[in-house]
Design goal:
Elements: H1 12-19, E1 39-44, E2 47-51, E3 61-68, E4 71-77, E5 82-85, E6 93-102, E7 114-117, E8 135-139, E9 144-149, E10 158-165, E11 168-173, E12 179-183, E13 190-199, E14 211-214, E15 228-235, E16 238-244, E17 254-259, E18 262-268, E19 278-284, E20 292-299, E21 313-316
Antiparallel strand pairs: 1-2, 2-5, 3-4, 3-6, 6-7, 8-9, 9-12, 10-11, 10-13, 13-14, 15-16, 16-19, 17-18, 17-20, 20-21
Length: 319
């Protein structure tokens, strides 16, 4: 029996067409675009904070690689766009680049270089800086906000300012900066920001005053959907919540409450139970006094979807 003739050498696309293969697709060989907006800021004598802009969803990025002087120093998932590079040498200049990688293993070209020089180390510096005394914020459209703070003092000198949102650091600014623009925010959403000063020994100040700002609704989305003027007050055995209902066409009757980032209950009101738009609800708590809660809530809209979150409030449960 004569063996079958060998198949002709065909390109992938031609082979698919010749043999009627419907599940045949060209391999992905297109790399993502190089990350944009990279910055590097020394946070202490031995660390540098590196940040960059997230890639558009269409790029299909699955992870980022951070390089220092051409040497890979960190690899991060696609939802991370900042990192602290630690273990560095004081009074040393460093240069960082970032590459994006997709699911097919394609790597982008390196980003622009971001340079930073670590400050001198301060032996036995255990004194943290004073907290910034003043913080302000204003929204700039639906997806960005400008946060401004007053300069802080330290016995050895402030080396960086860290901006926190809901207890999570989201930005690091240089020691000479007293303002920054935060991007990538959600439309029609209330945010709470605080600022901490940091010195060369990585001592951080207490939080400066919290500031609240609500981004504008996106064009065509109609009125805001976040509950306004949200407050939370702890008392023995309970927590009292109050807020102003959003204007959604008819008064919402359901609100989803989140505690420490997790949904814990749905608060329901009967028709007409909320008069004048102001709602109030008391929670009975069993957690021990001194427990810290961070609370926020959102309303169920007439179309069945959940609206934007209220501002987040931080409380300590009372005894």
């Amino acid at each position: 029996m004569r063996p079958p003739a060998p198949l002709p050498a065909l390109g992938l696309a031609a082979a698919c067409a010749a043999f009627g293969l419907t599940a045949c697709a060209a391999a992905d060989t297109t790399p993502p675009a190089a990350p944009a907006g990279i910055t590097a800021q020394a946070g202490s004598a031995t660390s540098v904070h590196v940040m960059w802009q997230a890639a558009p969803a269409a790029e299909g990025v699955t992870n980022y690689q951070v390089f220092e002087g051409g040497r890979l120093v960190r690899e991060l998932p696609a939802d991370r766009t900042m990192v602290d590079i630690t273990g560095l040498t004081p009074q040393t200049a460093y240069a960082f680049t970032v590459r994006a990688r997709d699911a097919a293993g394609n790597s982008s070209a390196p980003s622009a270089r971001a340079a930073a020089t670590t400050p001198a180390a301060r032996a036995e510096d255990r004194e943290p800086p004073a907290a910034p005394a003043r913080t302000t914020a204003r929204a700039e459209g639906p997806r960005s906000a400008v946060v401004t703070w007053s300069a802080a003092s330290d016995d050895t000198g402030v080396t960086a300012y860290d901006v926190y949102q809901g207890g999570v650091r989201i930005h690091t600014a240089g020691p000479a900066e007293t303002a920054t623009t935060l991007t990538g925010l959600q439309p029609d959403t209330a945010y709470n920001f605080t600022v901490r000063a940091r010195d060369g020994a990585d001592n951080s100040s207490p939080d400066g005053p919290a500031v609240e700002v609500t981004t504008a609704p996106a064009p065509g989305r109609g009125p805001g959907t976040a509950p306004a003027d949200f407050t939370a007050a702890a008392s023995p055995g309970g927590v009292t919540l109050a807020w102003t209902a959003p204007d959604t066409g008819r008064p919402p009757t359901e609100y989803e409450l989140h505690v420490n980032g997790r949904p814990v209950t749905v608060i329901q009101f009967g028709a007409g139970a909320v008069s004048g738009g102001r709602a109030e609800h008391r929670l009975t708590v069993a957690e021990p006094p001194g427990t810290v809660w961070e609370l926020k809530l959102r309303a169920r809209l007439p179309d069945g979807h959940w609206g934007a979150f209220s501002a987040q409030r931080r409380i300590v449960l009372a005894g």
